[in-house]
Amino acid sequence: MSEAIARASETWDIIIAGGGNAALCAAIEAAERGAKVLILEGAPKPYRGGNSRHTRNFRCMHHGDLGPLVETYDEAEFFDDLIRVTKGETDEALARMCIRSSEDCLPWMQAHGVRFQPSLAGTLSLDRTNAFFLGGGKALVNAYYLTAQDLGVKVLYEAQVRHVGIEGARATHLEVEVDGVTRHFHARAFVLASGGFQGDIDWLARAWGESARNFLIRGTPYNRGVVLKDMLDQGARSVGDPTQCHAVAIDGRAPKYDGGIVTRLDCVPFSVVVNRNAERFYDEGEDVWPKRYAIWGRLVAAQPGQVAYSIIDARSIDLFMPSVYPPIAAGSIAELAAKLELPAERLRTTIAAFNAACRPGDFHPQRLDGLATGGLEPPKTNWARPIEEPPFYAYSLRPGVTFTYLGLKVDDRARVAGPDGPYENLWSAGEMMAGSILGQGYLAGFGMTIGTVFGRIAGQEAAAHVA
Amino acid sequence: MSLDVTLQTDPGAISSDPVAEARRQVEICNACRYCEGFCAVFPAITRQKVFADGDITQLANLCHNCRGCYYACQYTAPHAFDLNLPAALGAARAESWERFAWPGGLAALFQRRGTALAAALVLACALMFLAVAALPGGGEGFYAYLGHGAMVLIFLPAFLLPLAALGIGLRRYWSETGGGAVTLADIGAAARSAATLGNLGGGQGQGCNFEAEERFSDERRMAHHAVMWGFLLCFASTVSGTILHYAFASPAPYGFFSAPKLLGVPGGVLLTLGCAGMLVLKGKADPALGTPGRASGEWAFVWLLGGVGLSGLLLYGLRESVLTGPLLALHLGSVLTLFLLTPYSKMAHGFYRFAALLREAQAGRR
Ligand SMILES: Cc1cc2nc3c(=O)[nH]c(=O)nc-3n(C[C@H](O)[C@H](O)[C@H](O)COP(=O)(O)OP(=O)(O)OC[C@H]3O[C@@H](n4cnc5c(N)ncnc54)[C@H](O)[C@@H]3O)c2cc1C
Ligand code: SF4
Ligand code: SF4
Fold first, then answer.
1. Beta partners for A427?
2. What's the superkingdom here (chain A) (predicted)?
3. B68: which chain A residues are within 8 Å (Cβ-Cβ)?
4. Distances from the Cα of A205 to the Cαs of A41, A197, A229, A248, A451, in angstroms?
5. In Å, how far is A315's CA from the nearest CA of chain B?
6. Does residue B1 surpass a pLDDT of 50?
7. Min CA distance, A76 vs chain B (Å)?
8. In terms of CATH, what superfamily is A3-211+406-466?
9. Model's pTM, two decimal places?
């Protein structure tokens, strides 16, 4: 209580809304340039760091070995990867600037306490493109908080920014709720880095439709888009599709919020997936799972009850990374149907029709093996092997939201665009503005790249503004 | 091809059974793997998909409570998964030593109750006072207080019998964790790891998070190095004395420039300072991340070990004074306690840890 009053009565050079990766990068850069910086983190200390605490790596351009990264990953290839996932929904100039800046970020991160490790067991394919954090995103967040505090940055937890006070093209103060009391915090410049709005289920339901109430949120419940909405209401310009979110198929038993990485489920390609009516609805073997898990988020979202069941038999149980939830096991398909509360007869015929459509051939779990069904609708075009050897296993699937696309429009100096050109003293970084670059789709590790690049720029620019 | 998924636990089902609870947390870690680079525990976890009881015992004994994985974990309380791997593995580890110890019951007593250890110490010191008073001296230096024959009579069995008991425990460990025939390469790998306390480096030499929360620090590794090498030097000093006595017919007392003193004095200093350092660090560390229910036994053990070092130094420093007799009794009493309680106190951890490193060397090569 007294800390909040004391902080509110001070005059700050820069106040940063949010306490994740983007906010911390901005705080460190600004403090290193001599600015007096306050971080307002809406979450309590144990949950500080938003979605950044759930991350494991960041994507980084490099020429030759760099830190844990091997070989070369150049701008052209990085940009091609981005174009492929976003289908062109990106701002090329901003994207290229971000890609080019990523190379400098890795040594900067190391110099500010982040430690890297070789790519994790089971993720070898990423050892050229993505640098993994030792201990994951929470370790990164911890390191940045320590660095920032050593630089004199002050942090107030459980400080929810409700409103950005703006006069003309200048922000004057933030209205912040701490301990149930609303206080005004004054500064000469502000950085907004408080993430997307996926934590606000009502907003999701308004944007996406009522079915969004059944979605699970993979990350923090504290990113509720309060600052984003406030800025948009005041005429700030937006980017990104306001109705869309990035959702992947995760284990349906995951907690509503903050389930993070462990709710991942990798069995779909080796399974038959049915909906609540025990009917198949999509080709489970279309491609390797890392290229399909996002599509499956949307597919499951479109099913009745926003739920599906992935069913395998004894031969496939050892083919994928362990799931944190034990499979539901049964000696027969009928017993499995009972346990899953699916129509038993319907499930039996679905599995029987699938099994009958499987054709002989070689099964190769590690690559697209072309082992496809014949005359089945929808087909399964790889790894189609009959589900026939008990025990049978099932995992439930639900859409898990990673982030929302709607964000603030910024320029290449991370300045927020207002109704009549950029605001004079408002910058934004991270998920809150990522829609400019990631208009749709997702490129693993790019969220942290965007946050680091734009967070650093925002911190530098804000510090220059107040200097 | 098939996998015994019945071993898998529901990640939300927090258990009061140490093995079941450690298994629940280890399964969550195996689905996450973010901490892979911290220590040997995580690479060992990723080699498996399900974990039998013996696997949990092995993982628990590979962990040395550096706490890196706790501060890095996104699933610690108040998250529903309530991860606290250092405490969970600590509980499974302490419980395994108590299960393996022979005779049963003693380890549970001395690990859980510092007062029991203190009582044993008082008893042992009283015995030694009695021995010094009642038994004839014979010779120079402290042999004037307690003759060589009497010392051998007391300390030879006090040294060998606990070692035999410990052997039984280690055999049980080896069979529960499915160890095979030990090769020289295994011993080499384990010895390297133990001598450098490699795992205490936090994976990249940054140290651990024992006493400074999220900050890395090398202090615990330094303190532990001092304790371990101090103890080994003291032990070597005793061995060198024995060799001098029997092989060279040169009984104590020895001058400063003799093997027993050149080994023993620095050893005693290291042991004493190391234990003092451990006590300071322990005082700063968050007890909620330590082994639940064993803090009292651990504290008492470090005091005992430090007491052995300090009393030995004092004995040497105050030789041929009025205090020599009482100090001799105190020193011998604490050494006696340390030896006798080796299988039942925290002292056992060194042996089990070495066994775990051996087992890991075997598993890692496969
Ligand atoms: C499970 C999961 C795994 C991921 N893995 C990766 C990965 O490996 N690599 C990668 O690049 N990306 C990953 N992402 C995406 C990545 O998390 C984001 O792109 C990145 O963390 C965004 O950083 P940020 O700082 O903008 O937002 P966040 O880290 O979410 O920070 C937002 C901060 O704002 C605070 N806040 C919100 N509202 C308010 C308010 N009103 N007042 C004050 N504070 C407020 C929050 O508490 C939080 O501290 C993952 C996402 C999830 C959910
Ligand atoms: S301790 Fe936490 S962060 Fe580390 S591997 Fe386990 S679950 Fe992941
Ligand atoms: S406490 Fe340290 S040694 Fe133990 S599992 Fe965690 S990181 Fe490894």
1. A191, A415
2. Bacteria
3. 135
4. 26, 11, 15, 17, 27
5. 6
6. no
7. 30
8. FAD/NAD(P)-binding domain (3.50.50.60)
9. 0.96
